Task: structure prediction
Amino acid sequence: MPKQPAIRKRLSLILLAVLFVISSLMLFEVRSSARIAANEAYDRVLFGSALAISERVFIVGNEIDVDIPYVALEMLASDTQDRVFYQVETDVNSFLTGYADLPPVPGAFENQFDTPIFYDAKYHGDDVRIGAINRYVSSQQLSTRFTVKVAETTDGRQALIQKMITDAILRQFILIIVAGAIMWIGISWGVKPLAHLQGALARRNPEDLHPIEHRVPQEVQHLVDGINDLMKRLSDSMAAMRRFTSNAAHQLRTPLAAIQTQTELALKASSADELKQRLTYLDQSTRQSTRLVNQLLSLAKATPDENSVTFDQIDLVNECKEITKELVPSALSKGIDLGLDCTLNRLEISGHAGLIQEALKNLIENAISYGPENTVVTVRIYKDDNSAKIEVEDTGTGIFPELQEAIFERFNRGNRSDGDGCGLGLPIVKEIVERHGWQISVSSQISKGAKFTISIPL
Ligand SMILES: Nc1ncnc2c1ncn2[C@@H]1O[C@H](COP(=O)(O)OP(=O)(O)O)[C@@H](O)[C@H]1O
Ligand SMILES: [Mg+2]
Result:
C-alpha cells in the first residue's frame, strides 16, 4: 500500500494553499485600491495648485495676464523628484503661458466647467498625470474662459502605490507564517491522542486482546471501535482455537495410549492367539487415530482462510450420485439399504465439488454407522419454490431433541460412544454448508430415524 502522507502534513498543505489563494486575491484588491487612494491624494494637490494659478489670472486692459504663484508649483514637487509643468490657455486655444506642448484635455469640458478633469498622458517620454480646470475672467472690455493645466510626473504616486503593496505583502506573509505556526501546533495538539494510542498499543503484550479503553477524539472513536471489535473476534477465535487444540490433543491421546498399551501387551504375548487379539485391538486404535487426523484435516480445509478455495459450476445430482455409489458397499456390509431418490437430471449450482462430497459422505456415514441392521438410508435431491434441498434420511435410532443442536459442536458425540468417530463429522458438514452460504437442519423422531436437510437458496 502506498504510504499516506501524515495528517499533519496533509492538513497544513491544504490550509496553507487556501490561505495563499485568499491572500493573493486580497493583494489584487489592495493593488487597485492603492492606485485609487494614491490618485485621490495626489490629484487633490494637483487640483489645489491649478486652482491657485487660476486665481492669479486677470485682465489688464485688453490683455489677459497671469502671475504664476510659484509656491503653488513647489507644493507639488516638494517631497519627490517629480517634475511639474503647467500651462494656461484661453478658451480659443490660444496659448498664454507655461509649457505650450502639454497634451490637450481629452474630449472637452463639455459644459461641466466647474469640475476639474484629471487624465494620464505621456509628456516627452515621461508618464504624467494632468489636472485641468476651466474658469472665467471678465472686465468691462473683455470676458473669456481659460484653462489651467498642471502636470506632474508620476514617480511619487507610483512609489506610494508600490509601498502600499509591499506593506500589504509583508503583512500577508507574516499572517501566513503565524497562521501556519498556529496550525502546526494546533494539529500536533489535536493528533496527540493518536500518538498516545499508538504508544499504548505498542506497549501491549501480544496476548493482550483487551479492548482499548483510551479516551480518544470522536473522529478516532470509530477506528478504535473497529479495532476493539476485531480484538474481540480475535480473542474469541483464539479461545476457540485453544479449546479445539486441547480437545484434539485429548482425543488423540486416547487411541495413542491404547496403541501403546496394546503394543506392550503384544510384545509380552505368550501365544499366537493372544498376539493376534492384541494386534486386532492395535489395528482398531490405529484406525481411530487415523480417522481423527483425517477429520481434523478436513475441518481445517473446510474452515475459510486466506487462500480460499474457488467455487465452480457443478452438477449437484452427479456429485450425490457419485458419493452414494461409493458408500453402497459399506452400507451393504452392515445390511443397510442405501439409495438415491432424485427425479432431476441436473442441478447446476456454484460450489466446491470436493467439499460437497466430504459433507455428504459424513452425513451418509453417520446414517450407516448409527443405524441398526436392515434400516434404509435415502439420499434425496429436489427443488421447491426458491431453493434446492439435499436430504439424508435414515430409519435408524434417531437423535434426542435436546442433542440435536449439540451434535454440531466439535467433539460432541451426543449420547454415543460406539464406532470410531470423534465428534468432528457434523462440525465439518456445518462448516462446509455455511461456507457455501447454505443451511443445514436436522429433524428426528426417536426410534423412527433422523433426517438431515441441506437447503440451497437458488
Ligand atoms: N444419522 C444419525 N442417527 C443417529 N445419531 C446420529 C446420526 N448422525 C449423527 N448422530 C449423532 O451425532 C453425533 C455426532 O456426529 P458426528 O459429528 O458425525 O461425530 P461422530 O460421527 O464422529 O461421532 C454422533 O456421535 C451421533 O451421536
Ligand atoms: Mg460422524
